[in-house]
Amino acid sequence: DFPAGYTKYHTYDEATKEIDALVARYPALVSKKVIGTSQEGRDILALKVSRNVTEDEAEPEVLFTAHQHAREHLTVEMALYLLGEFTSKYGSDPRITKMLDSREIWIIPDLNPDGGAYDIAAGSFRSWRKNRQPTPGSRSVGTDLNRNWDFKWGCCGGSSSSPSSEIYRGPSAASAPEVQVVANFVRSRIVGGTQQIKAAIDFHTYSELVLWPFGFTDDDTGPGMTRDDHDAFATIGKSMAASNGYTPEQSSELYITDGAIDDWLWGDQKVFAYTFEMYPSSAGAGGFYPKDTVIPRETTRNREAVLRLLEVADCPYRAIGKEA
Ligand code: 0X9
Ligand code: CA
Ligand code: ZN
């Protein structure tokens, strides 16, 4: 369980219960799908939120993911907040109503349930980051999920081949079961040859940043990223950051990463994918472990940014005046 001062954070079981209660209460708006299982056999869930949720309608889809990194527990709260907001405000909040009427929203609240459970299992935090997958030929446990995605995997010095490293990329691209499950889910949203998911945010902590691809290169344009692509990414990213007070930048400005989810989502699937680094801005303010009293403020803080991305998701190039 979570230690004193953190008990409002949801354990995996508590999150699952809350999700099941929402599905039971709003069956026309939310549906739950088990898209696969983690290394240790925990269900990885995808929640779909939309009007007429049981039908696959021809609407732009938007994906929100959380908790690739075990110790970043605030991101699960972010996902649960969005789920609660979308369901409880449908029919009363006009922007949310319009989005649920015209988008299909996917929320994967916990990409790394094993790591999250391990981080809190001892009663005090372990500062665990990776998943809990044994590494063949090593005593070290865990792959950094956000270095394991199958796009430019291990290409550029933005990950480690050493199993003991915090940024161990795994023995091969998509070697982590959790990455395979979510990548297969994303690919399953290709309908008639077209990827239905148009935009995405992957939530992390901390540093208060809005990041966009690519992370593997310092170049802002190049193969797979036209000037228009870049400008749309930057314009939408800056708009979201203006709403939550985060700092917007290309992810490689933070540091080079290869095998990160947003590079795969854009590079392989052409999804307008962002990474949010949530509260706090620095280690002094609690680092990976801010007290549970900040949860309402720091999740609500991203409401406007999420709405802005949803609203532009039907045609991201509209942000730069180039509607297709
Ligand atoms: O290193 C990471 O994976 C992220 N930072 S964290 O402290 N949450 O671990 C930053 C990733 C930035 N790169 C991309 N988003 N590509
Ligand atoms: Ca719908
Ligand atoms: Zn992270």
Write the layout of secondary structure elements.
Layout: H1 12-25, E1 30-37, E2 43-49, E3 61-66, H2 74-88, H3 94-102, E4 104-108, H4 113-120, H5 177-188, E5 190-191, E6 194-195, E7 197-205, E8 209-212, H6 227-244, E9 247-250, H7 251-254, H8 261-269, E10 272-278, H9 295-300, H10 303-312
Give a structural overview.
The chain is 32% helix and 17% strand. The chain has helices at 12-25, 74-88, 94-102, 113-120, 177-188, 227-244, 251-254, 261-269, 295-300, 303-312; strands at residues 30-37, 43-49, 61-66, 104-108, 190-191, 194-195, 197-205, 209-212, 247-250, 272-278. Strands 1-2-4-3-7-10-8-9 form an eight-stranded mixed sheet, with helices on both faces. The chain has a two-stranded antiparallel sheet with strand order 5-6. Helix 1 (12-25) packs parallel to helix 2. The longest helix is centred in the last third of the chain and has 18 residues, at 227-244. It is globular. The termini are far apart. The chain binds N~2~-sulfamoyl-L-arginine (0X9), calcium ion and zinc ion.
Descriptive terms for the model:
324 residues, alpha/beta, two-stranded antiparallel sheet, 32% helix, binds N~2~-sulfamoyl-L-arginine, binds calcium ion, binds zinc ion
